[in-house]
Amino acid sequence: MPTPPRAALLIIDVQQGLIAGPPPATRVMSLLAQLNAAIALARTRAMPVLFVQHDGPAGSLLAPGSDAWQLHGALAREATDTVVHKTAADAFCRTALKATLDEMSVDSLWIAGYASDFCVDSTVRSAAMQGYAVTVVADAHAGKDRPHVGGDALIEHCNWVWANLDTPGAPVRVLPVAGLTA
After folding, report:
1. In this structure, which topology does domain 7-179 adopt according to CATH?
2. Could you tell me which residue ranges the Isochorismatase-like domain spans (predicted)?
3. For FRET with 77, which of 33, 112, 127, 166 sits at 20 to 30 Å CA-CA?
4. Cα(165)–Cα(84) distance, rounded to whole angstroms?
5. How far apart are CA 89 and CA 117, in angstroms?
6. For residue range 63-112, what is the model confidence (pLDDT) as tens digits?
7. Which of 71, 89, 95, 67 is nearest to 81 (CA)?
8. What is the pLDDT of residues 134-180, one digit of tens each?
9. Where are the domains of the chain?
10. DSSP letter at 172?
C-alpha cells in the first residue's frame, strides 16, 4: 500500500534585518499576516513547519547571532519547529534540508518567505527539480524594490514564472493561503 503524500510548510529567510530593512520588504504587514495564516493552516493539518535561516559570514548583516540574523519576532513559531541553516540562495544547497524532509517522509512542500527573486526562487526550482510537489504560497512571499522592478511587480512576476515553469512530474502550483490544499 503506497504511503499517502505528506506535506510540510517551508518558510524561507524571514529574518529581522531582511524584513524590517532598511528598506523594508514589500508588503511587510501583509507578508507577516499571510505567513502566520499559512503556519496556522499547516498546524491544523498536522504538517511540519520548517524555518530556513540564512547564515552570513562574520561581520555581515546576517552574521549568526546578530539582531538582523534573528528570525522575525512576529512569526508564529513553536519550540518544536525545525530550523535549517543555509549559506546559499538554495535552501537545499549544502544543508540538512533534504535529509530532514526525508526523515519526516515529506514529498510535498508549501513554500513561502523572503526574497521572492533570490532564495524563494532558488528553493522553489531546486525542490521541483528534486521531485517534490511544490506549492508556492502566492501571497506569503516578498522581495524589495530592485533597480529595474518594483517590489509589487516582482512578486507578481515571480508568481507568473513559477506557475509556468516546466518541471518533471507535477507543475509548480501557485496559490494564495485561502486556496491551499495538502
Report:
1. Rossmann fold (3.40.50)
2. 7-146
3. 127
4. 26
5. 10
6. 999 999 999 999 999 999 999 999 999 999 999 999 999 999 999 999 99
7. 71
8. 999 999 999 999 999 999 999 999 999 999 999 988 789 999 999 99
9. 7-179
10. P
